[in-house]
Design brief:
This protein has four helices and six strands; from the N terminus they run αααβββββαβ. The chain is α+β, with helices and mostly antiparallel strands and 149 residues long. The chain starts with a helix and ends in a 9-residue tail after the last strand. A hairpin with a 3-residue loop joins β1 and β2.
Length: 149
């Protein structure tokens, strides 16, 4: 299989799940959580990665989630894909959480949806049969670090 053919398989796999990927991003957008408090978002990531057949590890730096996949084509580099879990306090944001003021004004909801979409595309296309090294899917907490007590 050529590199171009593998890329096309991955793109096609992602396109097939477009509605699901967008739905995950919207679900996250509608339920923003502040740094180190991203419990619902982390659970969504962990559950989604688990449904894909991975063995995610949660509770990293309180709410982070990580899943690793090794390529079957031998040793190679580790490539990490990151998605940030947290929202910001954005006074007056039209979809801010009424209790916390949190909103995904920086698009972290789309980042996490992209992270999960990448996992879906790589796994559904069986890309790891052709890749060397390892890919780490990592949902990270508190990137904004704005709500520290």
């Amino acid at each position: 299989m050529t590199r171009s053919e593998l890329k096309q398989r991955i793109y096609t796999a992602i396109d097939k799940r477009a509605e699901e990927i967008i739905g995950l991003g919207e679900q996250i957008r509608k339920h923003p959580e502040l740094g180190f408090k991203e419990v619902k978002t982390a659970r969504l990531v962990e559950d989604t990665l688990g449904r894909l057949g991975l063995s995610p590890r949660g509770g990293l730096a309180l709410t982070g989630v990580r899943a690793d996949v090794a390529g079957r084509a031998g040793a190679g580099p580790t490539f990490a894909l990151l998605g940030e879990l947290d929202g910001l306090v954005v006074t007056g944001h039209p979809v801010a959480d009424p209790q916390t003021g949190a909103a995904h004004a920086c698009g972290h909801n789309a980042q996490v949806a992209g992270l999960l979409g990448a996992a879906m595309g790589l796994l559904d296309s069986q890309a790891f049969e052709h890749l060397a090294g390892r890919v780490v899917f990592f949902a990270v907490p508190a990137e904004e670090y704005g709500d520290i007590e």
